[in-house]
Amino acid sequence: MLHKDSVKELDVQSAWLQGYIGSSEKQQQLYKRTLIVVVISQIFGGAGLAAGITVGALIAQDMLGTDSFSGIPTALFTLGSAGAALLVGRLSQRFGRRSGLATGFLAGGIGAIGVVISALTNSILLLFISLLIYGAGSATNLQARYAGTDLANSTQRAKAISMAMVSTTFGAVAGPNLVDVMGEFAVSIGIPSLAGPFILAAAAYILAGLVLLILLRPDPFIVAKALSDAQRKTSNLPLEGNSHTLSVNRRGIFAGASVMVLTQFVMTAIMTMTPIHMGHHGHGLNEVGLVIGFHIGAMFFPSLVTGFLVDKIGRSAMAIASAVTLLASGILAAMGPADSMVVLITALALLGLGWNFGLISGTAILVDATPPSTRAKTQGSVDVWIALSGALGGGLSGIIVGHSSYATLSIAGAVLSLLLIPFVIWAGVNQSKV
After folding, report:
1. What's phi and psi for 283, nearest 5 deg?
2. Taken in order 408, 411, 417, 422, is the CA torsion positive or negative?
3. What is the distance between the alpha carbons of residues 258 and 277, in angstroms, rounded to a whole number?
4. Could you give the 3-state DSSP secondary structure of residue 284?
5. Which one of 8, 82, 102, 209 has the fewest CB atoms closer than 10 angstroms to its CB?
C-alpha cells in the first residue's frame, strides 16, 4: 500500500502530465523550449568534444614516443563513450533526458580534468583512465540529438536532430582553433601545452551539464511517454503492438544502427590519423587545428540543410549520399598532395559531411522505428555500437598507418563506405509516415 505522501506526489505528477496530454499548444511550447535548451548545452558540449579530437593523439605520441599507438586515445574515449552511451540511455529511459544527459556531460568534464592531471604527472595510466571517462562527454553530445525528437512528429524529426547538431558547430569549430591560446594559458600556469585544450573541455562539459540540469524542465521524454501511453489507452492498443509492426521496427532499428555505425567507423579512422599525417609533412599545430576545425564544422554546420533533406527526400537517399561523400573524401585524402592545405581541408570537410549525412539519416530511421516505451534505452544501446565502431576505427588506424600508410587507410575507408549503398537499398527504409 502506498504511503499518503507518495499518493499525493503521484497525483500531482499525474495532474502536471495531464496538462500536457490535453493541450497541443503546451506540447509545442515544450518542444520549442527543449530545442532552445539543447542548443545552448550543445554549444558548450561541442567545445568539450573538440579537445580530444584535436590533441588526444598528439598527447599519446608525446608520452609514448611512437606513432604506432597514437590511435589509442581516440579508441579509449570512444570506448568510454560506449559504456557511457548505455548508461545515459538507461538513465534517460528511467528518469528522463535531463538526468541522463546532465550526468553524462558532468562525467565528461571530470575525465577532462583527469587528462590535465595526467599531463602534469606524466602518468600514462591516469591518461588512459581519464580518456575513458572523458568519453562520456562525447556519448552525451551525440545522445542530446535525441532530446529534440521526443515531441516531434515524423516530418519534424530530422530537422529536430539537425537543430541539436548544428548548434554543436559553434563550440566544436572554436575548440580546435583555440589550441594555441589554451596551450599558452596552460604553460602560463605550469601545465604542459598539449593539456591546454582539455582545460577548455572540462569547463565546457561541466557547463553543458549544468545547463541541462537546471533548464531542461519539464522533461520532454517523460511527457512523450505519457502522451504515448494516453494514445495507446484511447486506441485500445497493446503495449507490444502486432507482429508486423514489431518486424518493421526491428528492421528500422537495424538499418538505422548500421548506417550510423559504418559512417562512424570510417570517419573516426581517417580523422584520427590526420594530425599525425600532417605532422610528418611539416604542418604545425595551428594548421592541424585549422583542418580539424573545418572537419568538425562540416560534421555539424550543414545539419539544418541535411535535416530538411532527410525529411523531404527520404532517409535512404541521404544514407546513400553519405556513402558517396565518404568515398570522395577517402580518395582525395589518399591521392592528394600531403603538403596542400586546400586538399587536406577539402578531404576532411567531405569526411565530416559524409558523417553528417549518415548520422542524421540513420538517427531519423532509428527514431521512426522506436516507440517511447523503449526509445531511450534502444537509442543508448545503438549508440554503444556507434562508439565501439569509433573505438575500433581509432585503434586500427594507428596500426594500419604504422605498418602501411595514411593513403592505405584512406582508400580502405573509401571502399568500406560503399557497403552502405547495397545495404540501404536492401533494407528499403524510407521516411516513416506514422
Report:
1. -85, 140
2. negative
3. 29
4. coil
5. 8
Give the tens place of pLDDT for each residue, 134-192: 989 988 988 888 888 888 777 778 888 888 888 877 777 677 677 778 888 888 888 88
Q: Output the nine-digit C-alpha cell for 258.
A: 548500421
Cis peptide before 218 (omega within 30 of 0): yes
Q: How far apart are CA 83 and CA 89, in angstroms?
A: 10
The number of beta carbons lying within 10 Å of the beta carbon of residue 335 is 12
Q: Which long-range contacts (CB under 8 A, 24 or more apart) does 342-346 make?
A: 344/274, 344/278, 344/283, 344/291, 345/290, 345/291, 345/294
Neighbours of 378 (CB within 10 A): 21
**Half-sphere exposure of residue 340: CA atoms within 13 angstroms, side-chain side:** 12
DSSP string, 177-197: HTHHHHHHHHHHTT--GGGHH
Please report where in the chains the cell 598532395 appears, as a residue.
337
Q: What is the pLDDT of residue 48?
A: 83
* Cα 346 → chain centroid: 22
The conformational region for residue 184 under phi > 0 = left, psi -120 to 50 = alpha, else beta, is alpha
R_g over Cα of the chain:
21
Four-CA torsion 335, 339, 343, 344, nearest 10 degrees:
100
Burial 245-270 (b: 16+ CB within 10 A, else e): eeebbeebbbbbbbbbbbbbbbbbbb
> What domains lie within the chain, and their CATH numbers?
24-227+243-427 (1.20.1250.20)
**Residue 305: per-residue pLDDT:** 92
> Distance (Å, rounded) from C-alpha 257 to C-alpha 260?
5
Contact 262, 417 (CB under 8 A): yes
The closest alpha carbon to 295, from 336, 329, 340, 260, belongs to: 329
Q: What is the pTM of this model?
A: 0.76
What sections of 65-156 are H helices per DSSP? Answer: 72-95, 97-121, 124-147
By the 10 Å C-beta count (0-12 exposed, 13-18 middle, 19+ buried), 108 is classed as: buried
- Is the Cβ–Cβ distance between 59 and 119 less than 8 Å? yes
CB-based contacts of 159, cutoff 8 Å, min separation 6? 152, 304, 307, 308, 311
Average pLDDT estimate for 245-270? 84
